[in-house]
Amino acid sequence: MPQRTTNLLTGPILIAATAFLSVDSLAAQDSWDFVIAPYLLAPSISGTSTLGRLGGDISVDPGDVFRNMEAGGMLRFEGRHHSGYGFALDYAFMNLGNGATSPIGDIRADYKQSIFEALATYRFSNDSDTFDAYAGLRHWDIDVNLNILTGPAAGNLQRGDNWTDPIVGLRWQRRLNPKWRVLMQGDLGGFGVGSDFTWNLMGGFAYDRWQNTSLFMTYRALGVDYKSGTPGTPSFFEYDTVTQGLLAGVGFRF
């Protein structure tokens, strides 16, 4: 498949998912502290993708994603009990559509992708560092509709798949001063249950500008290697990519 066509099919994959937020306790009198945070990710994507017998290399920059975006949204919600146990829910959705011309004809590609995470967490700390261990599920849902309008391969090709990966990870943060914190996070998953393997790495800073509001900016890289069906058959689906870029958002504590 020509590279430009593959870009249209895979441009909106974001990672989403797994955004990273501040959940500092404010010594609240209630048993629970919560954080809700909308965020944005400006990704670049590289790897390979195959739909049936059509496939090729992927090379997408943030401009490709935002030029072709039709709809999207990203939100994270975290809660933590004073005992240290808690949870995190994260949802990222994007709908991408655009037209293109390639050697196989005029193309219309519509792509819908969502990632949902549900995690159980536990916080522990020492004098200078805070750690959040977590484990849970990351669910992927991808739907691709490729309409080749002209040329010898004219016709409609629709493929989609969804899978759920178990993941385990750790988040670390250290306060540099009353306003600034440094953050790092990583997890592994898949293990052949959903994808063959998936990984996630993040690092950056949080700025506690107001009592109950924080700004954060991190750099994130998310990799996944997923295959279903038999290679060379119309039902084969492959998604083997690394998505990376800046992630920024705002967290509201209550």
UniProtKB/TrEMBL annotation:
The keyword Signal applies. It comes from the Bacteria. Keywords: Signal. Residues 1-27 form the signal peptide. This is Outer membrane protein beta-barrel domain-containing protein.
